[in-house]
Specification:
The longest helix has 18 residues. Helix 1 packs antiparallel against helix 2. The chain is flat and about 35 Å long. The chain is mainly alpha-helical and about 70 residues long. The chain has a two-stranded antiparallel ribbon with strand order 1-2. About 65% of the residues lie in helices and about 10% in strands.
Length: about 70
Amino acid sequence: MAKFTQQDRQRSVNQTLASWALEGFEPAPEYLALLERYVQGELTLAQVRAITDVQVAAGTDSGEKSPVLHAA
């Protein structure tokens, strides 16, 4: 399994955020905080995904918008 450096993780996140911006989406502040924890090496992408899956499911049940992305 490849070991990514903090610089690798930051580059990946920056590229993802730029792609989303081009598509007209921006992540919620809560999701940006999770991405920062990923960049710092505190969370894996699998953990970020699991956390957001739970948040999205909870938001879907209550009729709220996705806590991950919304139109800019």
